[in-house]
Amino acid sequence: MIIDIIIPAYNEEKSIGKVLKDIPTGLAREVIVCNNNSSDLTKSVAQNHGATVVDQPRKGYGSACLKGMDHVAKKAEKPDVVVFLDGDYSDHPEEMPLLLEPIINDDCDLVIGSRALGNLEKGSMQPQQVFGNWLATTLIKMIYRIEFTDLGPFRAIKYDSLLKINMEDPDFGWTVEMQVKAAKLGLKCKEIPVTYRKRVGISKVSGTFKGTILAGHKILWTIFKLI
To answer: Which of 57, 80, 126, 153 has its CA 20 to 30 A from that of 32?
Structure first.
């Protein structure tokens, strides 16, 4: 099985090396760090740890992920699975095999690493994040008849399923877009409990009032837009 990993990263020079170091050796064909217009040393640190770095000058979480997908699409041999995780070291890369197991053994299309079902380090998620996750997943269940507990960024998806979903969102709606479209297409989805810790540095989203409001609005808008 060919596995490629996509990591969006914006000013994560203090954490990206830790993330790359903890990815299980030999698991992935390529680790792609999508440098999202960072003004620090994210790019050089990632390169020094053996990652392929692609630059995405347009800011936005989804924009960075789409740049990574574009890189993968240009390969002569496509991957079987793509794994997404954040570059802030809040996810535990060593738990990646847990997300891959349902794809390998149970033919799942999309596996979400659920922080809500797993072990949350105290202070790793702000109250507004917990509430936002609950509200979004409740709405998804009501509207699309599929149950999720989290919109967590740590996820694995079959490459052909990722292409079917046709991802488009350039920013905060990325994760919910993937889950809602997977539900609409009838893809086989599963959640796996994962461990989550305090990120390195301050969150660009939940760490600011403006970021929280913008992210919350975009997530809700995406849920209703895709009906």
So the answer is: 126
